[in-house]
Amino acid sequence: MRPPQVLREDTKKTIFIRCSRMHRQPEHVMTFLLAELGISGSLDGQQRLVVKGRFTPKFFEGILRRYVSKIHLCVT
């Protein structure tokens, strides 16, 4: 898995860019990530997930690995 693309918009927001590139509905990915993080966020006009807080790409990668493993288990 390639590391996720994460940007910081300001000191209190993080943007996760690859939400629409996962071949899943962005809303589904967003719901999972927000539930795992326990924070609020939303999709912007470019289907990027904007969350409140500062997070590193490595942090998102761990959550995305859990997402992929759970989705894989549900599909197979």
UniProtKB/TrEMBL annotation:
GO MF annotation terms: mRNA binding; translation initiation factor activity; translation initiation factor binding
SUPFAM superfamilies, per database record: Translation initiation factor 2 beta, aIF2beta, N-terminal domain
Gene3D superfamilies: 3.30.30.170
UniProt signal peptide: none
Annotated Gene Ontology cellular component terms: eukaryotic translation initiation factor 2 complex
InterPro entries associated with the record: IF2/IF5 (IPR045196), Transl_init_fac_IF2/IF5_dom (IPR002735), Transl_init_fac_IF2/IF5_N (IPR016189)
Superkingdom to which the source organism belongs: Eukaryota
The protein, known as: Translation initiation factor IF2/IF5 domain-containing protein
Domain Translation initiation factor IF2/IF5: 1-76
